[in-house]
Structures are given as C-alpha cells and as structure tokens.
Design brief:
- The protein contains no helices and 32 strands.
- The chain has 441 residues and is mainly beta.
- The chain has 3 domains: 148 residues; 157 residues, Immunoglobulin-like (Sandwich); 108 residues, Sandwich (Immunoglobulin-like), CATH 2.60.40.
- The strands form 7 sheets. Strands 2, 3, 4, 5, 6, 7, 8, 9 and 10 form a 9-stranded antiparallel beta sheet that branches. A 6-stranded mixed beta sheet has the order 21-1-32-24-30-28, with no helix packed on it. Strands 20, 22, 23, 27, 29 and 31 form a 6-stranded antiparallel beta sheet that branches.
- Keywords: Signal.
- This is Beta-xylosidase.
- It comes from Streptomyces umbrinus.
Length: 441
C-alpha cells in the first residue's frame, strides 16, 4: 500500500470459497482512502510583552485527523488538530519544565458545512530550553454534522499558554486564512434533523472566568441551558440563554469547576441528543498558588483510538458436491477490537460481501452467505460487546458486533462468526471467492 493511503477502520478480508473440493484463496485487502495532509501555512505569533521581542512571522506545520471520515448527518465527529512544528518558540531565556503548556485553537470547516471548531489540548509537554523551539502538541474538539456532502477541515489560529512563574500567552494567527485543507470528511444524509450548534468566545480561562457561548438552530423562544461537561457528565457550571426568533442564542457561562473540559447547550431541563449541541472544548487553567515549600504534580490520561486487527486474511470454506450443493462452512478469522478513546461513544462493526465469482463468469449470489456472530469482552472493560443477529450478510451488509453508548465506554473485545455459504445444487464446478469488507465505526 502506498503512502497516499491509510486505514480508516475499514478492512477487507478475502474469503476463499470452495466448491467441488477445489479451494480458492486470496490476500488481505485494504480499501484506499485519502490520507490527511500535513500542511504548512504562514503564521503571525505575538510573544508576551514581558519577552520584549517583536512578533514572529513564521511557518506552522500542522495536520488534522478525525475519528470518522464518513459520518451521517447528526453524527458527532471528534477532530484532532496536531501542530507538528509551531511557528513560535519559548520567548524567554528561562528553560520551561515539562507539562506547563496548555494549547487551544480553532479548526475551520468549509465545503458543505461552514464554521469553526474549538479545540483544546492537555497541559502536557516535554521540557523546553530557554529560547528553544516549542514541541509538537495536539488539541481535540468535536462538531456535529448538519449537512451531507464533502466537509473540509483546515487548521486555524492557536494559542500556547504557559504556566510557570508567570501565566503567559503566545497567540498565533493564520496570516492568510483559511489555511490549506488538511482533511476532508464525506457526510451522508442520516435523516437527523438536529442542526443545533454552538461556539465559544475563547477556548480557555482561569477558574471563575466567563466564556461567551453563541449558537444557532435552536427552537425560537426556547429556554436553553448552558452547562460545563467533563466527559459524559455535567459539572457544577450552569447558565441560561433564550433563543431569539431566528433560533440563535448568546449567553455567558461562568466556569469555576476545574473538572470542566467542554461546554454544551440544550433545550429543556436535561441533556438530550435530539435538542442539544456540543460539547465545545474548553480548558480551565488552574492558577491556584501553592503553599510555600509545595510542589504541584500534574499528570494526564491520553485518549487513544478505536482500532481492529484480524488473525488472518483468508478463510477456506469446506467443499460441497456438484449436483447436491448445500452449505460450504467455515469460521471467520478472529477480529480483535480495541476501544481506547474514552468518552461516551460505543462502536459498531459491520460487514458486507460481494458475489462469489467462479469459472467462466459463474457466480454465487452474495445473499447466500450467512453468519452466526459471537463476541467476547475482556475482563475489566467498561463496555460489553453484543453479537449481531444470525442471518444473511449479503451486499447490503449486516452487523457483526457492537457496544452501546454509555457514561463510560471502552475496552478490548474479540469477535468471531460461523460462516455458511449456501451453494445451489448444480453450481458449475470450480473455485469461487468473494470479498467480505468489515467496517468499524
């Protein structure tokens, strides 16, 4: 596979179907998809006044990735903005210790859906020498798909906040916005009608600071709750706003709870996916002074990815006799799913199969392949794996396994299935094969 392709949790296993004691085989295939582009763009960075140095006009190298490149309208997409090489550097001669940088920023949407996504990163970094280059860092945020079509994502402005001796900011803006497109997602119409969306006036603040929350597409005249979120749970931060005649909202939320990592807005007394928007990422910068002789110890838990691997790339199904036909049986190569994302989202593993091609243009219809799924959950996993229903796979596809959404999700899972290809009695002799594509979302 060339460098211009990557896995998006979409894998294809070639099933070697057998008939009349003649077997066929094949190799693992992985559908190609466009890789996110690492892009360079001109950036204007303003060091803090205490540094006594002029603005820096340099080049930022960045990349944007998403957890789902083929969402449906109404889906929430997790976006990661990685600044591979910042344009700015440590503006002072004093070396900066580890884990004192808190990055925040914006990602610009274009194409089928316009707007900005607020992104924020953890307070985590390697030590930075005096006047040394800032290290690479990543920021995450989310947006809800409101329109089908191709949606482009470009890196936007970012800010590097340092908390050591003094609280300092180095804001960096895109000199010629928008920056080049780094990632594109293609959304399909999922039938969802919730187009509510919010954005924040700033992506970070000290405990007790207020953040401006603006939004659109709420029910005109509706009372809207503004709330802080930490993962799937709400924090103690609450506020209110009222949607105007056009469904727009504008309000302020005082963020005092240090656990808050995002902000949501929703109609009614409690959050619901149908009448809510967000979360928009927000970082509370804890500037509480330490008692004399104390040391503050910071740590973080880094969110991982949703991934899967297969035990093999070929399945040999048992032969059947010409004139008798019957079921050609075998077992799916075991699939291992690892969900280390954190947060409330579950996952779904689906499969679809092509017709089984044979000699001289003969074929066995894809609908003739059936499966009986099974799955197991590793001890200690927050989620529980559910097998799909037994039945035909076909070209339309079926669910192999899934886990539900929940307050806390994740874990490791093994997925298997008994396979059976119903071969008609007088199917021409020869080897038949079809491609089963498994998709993890």
């Amino acid at each position: 596979m060339g460098s211009g392709t990557r896995r998006r949790h979409r894998w294809a296993a070639l099933l070697g179907a057998t008939a009349l004691a003649v077997t066929g085989g094949g190799a693992l295939a992985c559908p190609a998809s466009a890789e996110p582009q690492q892009v360079d763009f001109a950036t204007h960075c303003v060091p803090p006044p205490i540094a006594g140095i002029p603005p820096i006009d340099g080049t930022t190298t960045a990349k944007i990735t998403v957890d789902n490149a083929a969402p449906k309208v109404g889906d929430m997409v997790i976006v990661t903005y990685t600044v591979v090489k910042p344009a700015a550097s440590n503006p002072v001669d004093i070396a900066l210790p580890a884990d004192i940088m808190t990055p925040t920023g914006k990602v610009t949407l274009g194409g089928a859906q316009a707007g900005d996504i607020t992104v924020a990163g953890p307070k985590k970094n390697d030590p930075v020498p005096g006047k040394g280059a800032f290290p690479s860092f990543s920021m995450t945020g989310t947006f809800t798909v409101t329109t089908p079509g191709a949606i482009t994502l470009s890196p936007g402005d970012y800010n590097i906040h340092t908390s050591y001796l003094l609280e300092l900011d180095t804001p960096c803006t895109v000199s010629n916005p928008p920056a080049p497109v780094s990632e594109t997602v293609t959304a399909t119409d999922g039938g969802q009608t919730n187009n509510r969306a919010i954005s924040l006036g700033t992506a970070s603040g000290k405990p007790g600071d207020s953040v401006t929350v603006t939004g659109a597409n709420f029910t005109p005249g509706a009372a809207v709750t503004l709330a802080g979120r930490a993962g799937a749970a709400e924090t103690a931060d609450k506020g209110t706003a009222t949607a105007n005649a056009q469904g727009a909202i504008s309000g302020t939320l005082t963020v005092s709870d240090k656990a808050t990592t995002g902000v949501v807005a929703y109609e009614g007394s409690a959050w619901s996916d149908a009448k809510g928007a967000g979360p928009a990422a927000y970082v509370v910068i804890d500037d509480t002074p330490l008692p004399e002789g104390s040391q503050k110890l910071n740590s973080s838990v880094k969110a991982g990815t949703l991934s899967m691997t297969q035990a093999g790339d070929t399945v040999e199904l048992a032969a059947v006799d010409y004139g008798k036909g019957g079921f050609s049986r075998g077992s799916l190569q075991t699939v291992t799913v690892k969900d280390f994302r954190g947060g409330p989202a579950g996952w779904s593993l689906t499969g679809k199969v092509t017709d089984f091609a044979g000699p001289g243009g003969a074929k066995i219809d894809a609908a003739k392949l059936g499966w009986t799924p099974v799955c197991a959950t590793k001890t200690g996993s927050p989620s529980t794996c559910r097998p799909g229903s037994p039945g035909s796979v076909g070209s339309a596809g079926a669910t192999l396994a899934s886990t539900p959404n929940g307050a806390q999700t994740g874990g490791e899972f093994t997925v298997d299935a008994r396979l059976s290809l119903n071969v008609p009695a007088f199917t021409p002799p020869g080897a038949y094969s079809g491609v089963l594509t498994l998709t993890l979302t």
